[in-house]
Design brief:
globular; TIM Barrel; 374 residues; five-stranded parallel beta sheet; alpha/beta; binds zinc ion; 14 helices
């Protein structure tokens, strides 16, 4: 395929559907000078929720805030909808981590010691609701399921010495990995509560899924149950019209999206950095699904892997409907590098789809607006 060498049409508007600039707060000052139009900025954990809020307030036209709790930090949430044994805070913490981690950190007091006092799920949801309500279009994110990640080990003196003061705390920060994972059931509980909140406020969500596309789909299906859109084929519609004279208001309405309505599921979902095969796309895109599912791609994750995996991503991008593709940087620093990665990813998507740059960048911009605003 011929490479399009023409100048990149930034003036059309490039929208980063998923990024983490608040992980490097010193980079936030560079946002006004960026060529990208708007950054969809994720929150992931206790340390960055407030930073995302402040960043969105300081850069109203350039930042679309998202508030959510990432699966990598889901162990820090305790499900207080189920009855907890009468225990003091220390005991409760120990019982909680032994219940949600696998393998169980039975005798690993040093590891448990290093983990924070868990936050009740009901508190997370009410705090997130408050934040969402102060930004009428804010999204829920980053949320999701991850079957492969392991928690970082407890901090060593050496780790602490080598710590980068520029990086927002709370992430792995180069630590070695422990053997512990968060049980999928617990991740699901934390995800489900946040998907329901997004449904309550009719907000879009940005979803992380690693080796968990099946489990994610099962959860969506569970939330969608009983709310499926009625899909009427043209032939059926014509038959109905013949029989009744015209389609009634109600029936015409059944295929409309759930935009603006309170539902137990979000109206729009983005599977960010989708790395799965082509086959499951069909189920995510089925016309009866009452949520519209989008897919976003970054050059960092999707185009730098092995040739087999980048071929798979190309196949996925090629197979998607043109109105469901988004572009993202997934970068942890704002500034020129973020612009560069967005341009690279957008150019690659255009090349795969056979779009000329102006048409492709316009399509990606339209898709982002529809994804965020409905
Ligand atoms: Zn992310």
């Amino acid at each position: 395929m011929a490479h399009d060498e023409s100048a990149f049409p930034w003036e059309i508007g490039v929208f980063d559907a998923h990024c983490h600039p608040t992980d490097t707060m010193a980079s936030i000052a560079s946002i006004p000078a960026m060529t990208a139009a708007t950054l969809t900025v994720m929150a992931t954990r206790g340390e960055d929720q407030e930073l995302v809020r402040q960043t969105a307030e300081a850069h109203v036209d350039r930042v679309m805030p998202c508030f959510g709790w990432h699966p990598w930090f889901s162990h820090q949430i305790i499900d207080d909808s189920i009855e907890q044994p009468e225990q003091d805070a220390e005991q409760q913490k120990r019982t909680h981590y032994k219940a949600v981690l696998t393998p169980c950190p039975e005798d690993d007091e040093a590891f448990i010691q290093c983990l924070p006092q868990p936050k009740p799920l009901s508190t997370l949801i009410s705090e997130t609701r408050e934040r969402l309500l102060s930004f009428p279009n804010a999204l829920v994110g980053e949320i999701g399921l991850d079957k492969s990640f392991r928690l970082p080990s407890a901090w060593t003196a050496e780790d602490l010495d080598g710590r980068n003061g520029q990086v927002t705390p709370g992430s792995r920060e180069g630590r070695r990995l422990s053997p512990y994972k968060v049980k999928l059931d617990h991740q699901r509980t934390v995800l489900k509560a946040q998907l329901r909140l997004a449904g309550e406020l009719a907000r879009a969500v940005s979803v992380h899924s690693v080796q968990a596309h099946g489990a994610i789909f099962e959860l969506f299906k569970e939330l969608w149950a009983g709310h499926e859109r009625v899909v009427i084929s043209r032939r059926e519609r014509e038959k109905q019209q013949d029989a009744e004279g015209a389609v009634s208001e109600d029936e015409a309405d059944t295929t409309k999206s759930a935009t603006g309505k309170q539902q137990p599921f979000p109206p729009r979902i983005c599977l960010h950095s989708y790395s799965g095969p082509v086959e499951p796309l069909r189920q995510f895109l089925h016309k009866a699904n009452p949520s519209d599912v989008y897919f976003s791609f970054s050059s960092v994750i999707n185009f730098t892997g092995s040739s087999a995996s980048s071929r798979r991503v190309s196949d996925v991008i090629d197979a998607l409907p043109e109105d469901r593709v988004l572009v993202e940087s997934d970068l942890h620093t704002a500034g020129p590098q973020m612009d560069e990665l967005l341009e690279q990813a957008a150019r690659q998507i255009c090349e795969i789809r056979g779009w000329d740059l102006r048409r492709g960048v316009q399509q990606l911009a339209d898709n982002w607006r529809r994804f965020v605003f409905g």
